[in-house]
Design brief:
The chain is α+β, with helices and mostly antiparallel strands and 874 residues long. Among the domains are: 193 residues, Sandwich (Immunoglobulin-like), CATH 2.60.40; 174 residues, Immunoglobulin-like, CATH 2.60.40; 131 residues, Peptidase M1, alanyl aminopeptidase, C-terminal domain (Zincin-like fold), CATH 1.25.50. The chain is built from 28 helices and 33 strands. The chain has an eight-stranded mixed beta sheet, with no helix packed on it. Strands 17-18-19-21-20 form a five-stranded mixed beta sheet, covered by helices on one side. A four-stranded antiparallel beta sheet has the order 10-11-16-13, with no helix packed on it. Strand 20 and strand 21 form a beta hairpin. The longest helix is centred in the middle third of the chain and has 25 residues. The radius of gyration is 28 Å and the shape is globular. Bound molecules: (3S)-3,7-diaminoheptanoic acid and zinc ion. (3S)-3,7-diaminoheptanoic acid binds next to strand 20 and helix 2.
């Protein structure tokens, strides 16, 4: 496979201004007839051959301006169609035949649970028809869908329906017109036995929009939350960004087989069923919140992505980074803002940091790729969002909003670049953002070392910050970045933020330092008591921050920091210091001793009244094994697991009564609602129960046993069932699992949870369970959700067992990768990730993991898996 380079970008030789499609649907032989209005691109020279992409298409007919082409006038190869000579402007007619039923890659047109659906981003449209399948070709679309009246009573595509009718042989058709020019990746078609839930929204200028969620009939009772979320998102985007919806209808469809969470096709968003369906009995609080975030994310793309799109796929973060930032802010405004930030950052520091430190590290704007589908990564999405967030910090909200308005106004209807976006921000603020642009081109997580000194005599506080970004594959040398460091100084006596004066300028109680050099010292004057610095508040930049905090200082910040996020972070740091000691003790075979300061800190948390229960739940949650691993120079999976269990059990033993009391205080009889206050209560309650279950406290076990039968919500049921299955009480766990499995056998989304609960149990016999479940009639490698729920969860969340020293965990994953490589390359290339991180482990595991990667490399590989394996073994 060949790499594509950003530096080689050229506009296309020919573009399409209007696209007329006709689909005659049949599962194994669908005919796609296309009439494309083609013209030479004004920036390219005349007389170039025409080259359109096409993949797995059988060409039936081809004509230019109505004239059938002779065999020597065109050529079709594995990747597309070439016509040596075409007019400046012409109509291209083609007819191709495709096989949706055989499409297990789930790209292009495929069949999922008997219904036809599409996924075109990034390069799936070329599996539908010959086309300049690139985002800088934007056309209006007119699409006629013909299907069987019984098999496909509902026929959907982008835009507005303009005509429909009956056809011979029990068939019918609907014609859709999308007036907004769009790239092919935003095309969508759905046809099947669907039913809808409908609602309305009136936009700020008075447009009456019909909102529809289309699902299989048995899921009609699971759409309320998605609909409510959609309406909130539409309203929020008007109020916050001045963005209004632009069609008369907005549709969401739920499909069972889907590679990602969802897709923002113009006017017809297609969702993975797990990202849209919720019901108190089948979905957890976390699932409700995820649905809200994803519905909003896809909706927000209507402007950040669809109206203004990407010039080429290297600019992917232009739409994804900005849209993730928008959905994060939306969820923060709708729920607890500090908790949303804590959740996002703990995930980021676990998973994106790991990516940025591994062999697949890449810049937010990569300069080359082999398979673009491999670049829908945490770096492009989440680090891209952090960059946009930094811009917001640097500019302030009002100016940032002006920049956003300018961007949408100036580039509406165009396919643009990351520079175009950042230039708008520079223009409205007058800031020089040229150094800032390095965030897009340099991979790797920058490290900031901070040192502080208080000069009693002069009442000065000196803060020295230095930055460095470690080398990453292909990027040995790094330049200093422009880093916003939000900070305050907390008076050690008063416990309050001190007034900051820097270079004679009074800055209030908090400021944003612009770190631009590799080392800078800031002298704060008139500081009349010794402070403890609170740095990088709210995680104001995606960096590692090192500061030699003592445990006393961390305990102090945990109580007094005015920034909730940093208060939480102080707690995490304090626990991490204890964990570090325990990991070392485990490795050296010495007795583990629990740090009493951590116990004291937890006692204070458990016994101090607080309004924000959601923050409390986060504070009580121990860092995950994956998070702890990211903080270690070399990952010792067993020591990390043992140390974390030890901390949990020590806290549970020392604070048993406090946990019981907290559990009791947070129970509630109110009927389930997915609202922040209730969600927080359940979190606190279940976190407390988890501690009690870690020591299999009798009272804790009875509480868990009773909770498994909670009728009205999956949050409590799943939490309790997980605790039981992960404990040694199989006498209770096994019957409960069985009952659960029988009760929910008809609901695939619940059964996926049933798989996850079992494959994440820490017991050593779990691998047999994984294999057994892979043979379960409800499991299938063809369904990405099931692969993630079973294989993905085992490899990512059951670290001690995945990393077994006999290599059986690695072997199992490699076998799955090899099988998926031919079925669904995109999923194969994602699921392989844990194996690519071999450098982080001890020699024995390194050898085992590399051997599995070599075994995969020996297969005939898709470009997706090929690129991952080559990077991992480079
Ligand atoms: N834009 C889609 C990504 C789909 C890519 C699939 N290979 C989802 C999203 O970010 O909204
Ligand atoms: Zn997106």
């Amino acid at each position: 496979p060949q790499a594509t380079y950003l530096k080689d970008y050229l506009p296309p030789a020919y573009r399409v201004t209007h696209t007329e499609l006709k689909f005659d649907l049949a599962p194994s032989a669908t005919t796609v007839t296309a009439r494309l209005h083609v013209e030479r691109h004004p920036e390219r020279e005349a007389g170039l051959p025409l080259r359109f992409a096409g993949d797995k298409l059988s060409l039936v007919r081809i004509a230019v301006d109505g004239q059938e082409l002779q065999a020597d006038e065109y050529e079709v190869d594995d990747e597309g169609l070439t016509i040596a000579s075409v007019p400046e402007r012409f109509l291209l007619d083609t007819e191709v035949s495709i096989d949706p039923a055989a499409n297990t890659a789930l790209e292009g047109l495929y069949v999922s649970s008997g219904m036809f659906c599409t996924q075109c981003e990034p390069e799936g449209f070329r599996r539908i028809t010959f086309y300049p399948d690139r985002p800088d070709v934007m056309a209006t679309f007119s699409t006629t869908v013909i299907g069987d009246k019984t098999e496909a009573p509902v026929l959907l595509s982008n835009g507005n329906p303009v005509e429909s009718g009956e056809l011979p042989n029990g068939r019918h058709f609907v014609t859709w017109e999308d007036p907004h020019p769009k790239p092919s990746y935003l095309f969508a078609l759905v046809a099947g036995k669907l039913e809808k839930v409908e609602d309305r929204f009136t936009t700020m200028s008075g447009r009456d929009v019909t909102l529809q969620i289309w699902v299989e009939p048995e899921n009609l009772d699971k759409t309320d939350h998605a609909m409510a979320s959609l309406k909130r998102a539409m309203q929020w985007d008007e109020e916050t960004y001045g963005r209004e919806y632009d069609l008369d209808r907005f549709m969401i469809v739920a499909v069972n087989d889907f590679n990602m969470g969802a897709m923002e096709n113009k006017g017809l968003n297609i969702f993975n069923s797990v990202a849209v369906l919720t019901h108190p009995q089948t979905a957890t609080d976390a699932a409700f919140q995820r649905v809200e975030g994803i519905v909003a994310h896809e909706y927000f793309h209507n402007w950040s992505g669809n109206r203004v799109t990407c010039r080429d796929w290297f600019q992917l973060s232009l739409k994804e980074g900005f849209t993730v930032f928008r959905d994060q802010t939306f969820s923060a405004d709708t729920n607890s803002a500090p908790v949303k930030r804590i959740e996002d950052v703990s995930f980021f520091r676990t998973a994106q940091f790991a990516e940025d430190a591994g062999p697949t590290a890449h810049p937010v704007r990569p300069d080359h790729y082999i398979e673009i589908s491999n670049f829908y990564t945490l770096t492009i999405y989440e680090k891209g969002a952090e960059i946009v967030r930094m811009l917001r910090h640097l500019l302030g909200w009002e100016t940032f909003r002006q920049g956003s308005d300018l961007y949408f106004a100036r580039f509406d209807g165009q396919a643009v670049t990351i520079e175009d976006f950042v230039d708008c921000m520079a223009e409205v603020s007058g800031l020089d953002l040229s150094q800032f642009m390095r965030w897009y081109s340099q991979a790797g997580t920058p490290e900031i070392d901070a040192h502080g000194e208080y000069d009693y005599a002069k009442c000065e506080y000196h803060l020295r910050l230095s930055q460095r970004t470690p080398p990453t594959p292909g990027q040995a040398e790094k330049l200093p970045l422009h880093i916003p460091v939000r900070m305050g100084l907390v008076g050690t006596k008063s416990g309050r933020d001190l007034s900051l004066t820097l270079n004679g300028e009074a800055l209030g109680h908090e400021t944003v330092l612009h770190l631009r050099d590799s080392e800078q010292t800031y002298v704060f004057t008139d500081i009349d008591e010794a402070p403890t610095p609170s740095l990088l508040r709210g995680f104001s930049a995606p960096v590692y921050l090192r500061y030699p905090y003592s445990r006393e200082e961390l305990s102090f910040l945990l109580t007094h920091d005015a920034d909730d996020f940093n208060r939480w972070d102080a707690g995490q740091r304090l626990t991490m210091l204890a964990l570090d000691d325990l990991i070392a003790a485990h490795r050296n075979g010495v007795e583990k001793v629990m740090d009493s300061r951590v116990i004291d800190a937890y006692r204070r948390l458990l016994t101090t009244e607080t309004d924000d229960k959601a923050v409390l739940a986060e504070m009580l949650t121990l860092p995950s094994e994956a998070y702890i691993a990211e903080q270690q120079p070399m990952v010792d999976v067993d020591a990390i697991h043992a140390a974390r269990v030890f901390v949990k059990q020590s806290l549970a033993t020392a604070l048993r009564d406090e946990f019981l009391a907290i559990h009791e205080a947070h129970r509630s009889d109110a009927p389930y609602a997915p609202e922040p206050e209730q969600i927080a209560r359940r979190r606190v309650k279940n976190v407390a129960l988890e501690y009690l279950m870690s020591i299999e406290d009798d009272e804790g076990v009875s509480l868990a046993e009773a909770q498994v039968d909670a009728e009205d919500n999956m949050t409590d049921v799943r939490a309790a069932l997980t605790m039981l299955v992960h404990s040694s009480r199989s006498d209770i766990a096994e019957p409960a699992l069985k009952a659960f499995g029988e009760k929910w056998a008809h609901d695939p989304l619940v059964m996926n949870q049933w798989f996850t609960i079992q494959v994440t149990r820490p017991q050593a016999d779990v691998l047999e369970r994984v294999k057994y479940l892979m043979a379960h009639p409800l499991f299938s490698l063809k369904n990405p959700n099931k692969v993630r729920a079973l294989i993905g969860a085992f490899a990512a969340q059951n670290r001690i067992n995945f990393h077994r020293l006999d290599g059986e965990g690695y072997r199992l994953l490699a076998d799955v990768v090899i099988e998926l490589n031919s079925l669904n390359p995109e999923i194969a290339a994602r699921i392989i990730t844990p194996l690519t991180r071999w450098q982080r482990f001890d020699e024995q595991r390194q050898a085992l993991m590399k051997a599995e990667l070599e075994r995969i490399r020996a297969e005939e590989l898709s470009p997706n898996v090929f690129e991952m394996v080559e990077q991992a073994l480079a």
